[in-house]
Amino acid sequence: MTTMRQSIFWNRVTRILLYFSIAVLFILVVFPFYWMIVTSLQPQDAVFNVPPQLWPTHPTFQNYIDAWNAAPWLRYFGNTLFVAVASTLISLTTSSLAAFAFACINFKGKEALFSLVLSVMMIPAATTLIPNFLIIRTLGWYDKFYALIIPFAASVFGIFLLRQYFMSMPRELWEAAQIDGASRLRYFRSIALPLAKPAIVTIAINSFLGSWTSFLWPTVMTQSQNKQLIEVALNSFLGEKGQQWSQLAAASVFTTIPIVILFFFVQRQFIEGIGGGGIKG
Fold it and tell me: Which domains does the chain carry?
């Protein structure tokens, strides 16, 4: 009886510690975003009040109006959306085709080639910045959308994740498709891709977020204002409004909202894609 009570006691203690740890992590992650919103609703002279106000006494949306009118944000949003959607669609196409080939088609040197593809993930992006810049200049793509889309037309992570999904699919599906007279392309399009939807959504989210939050590459590859993306524009806004912290916070909020909304709608598929291993046969 005593042993059972001790077990129940330690189970409760463990659960309390677990919930406490989760609560602390939640606060650490969410509080910066919360503080950004609070700052965006405060007058400029109230940002550095001591003690700090956890909620503005007189909230105002004037900072959002001033920040929006201070730069052509619609153009920046349009540029970023175009680049993100284009690079995501191209990356999904190339990644799914390559992953299907590595998973379902036997050819000489497949394992060695796949290992070579995976090794690309080990190369720091900064080491390839100068060679890629020289290639872009040689091709005449500098300060053009080609330079922001084509280099991200393939995803090693996408190839790896989709390959795992395709490999986990029961062999009987392909055999049944063969009996029905389906080609590999038909099997890929009609069976494999629909079943790999969680992985496809995960790759799409990663690719879209990568394009939306990209800063270094667009900064190097673009010069004119009409080609700037959100992160580059926000950095330029920082230089122009370096002392207007409330406006900076407001600009940060409305450039973050689209990503939050996107994740809200696709979070279930994203979690399934990361945690799942395909179909269990």
Answer: 2-63 (no CATH), 70-275 (1.10.3720.10)
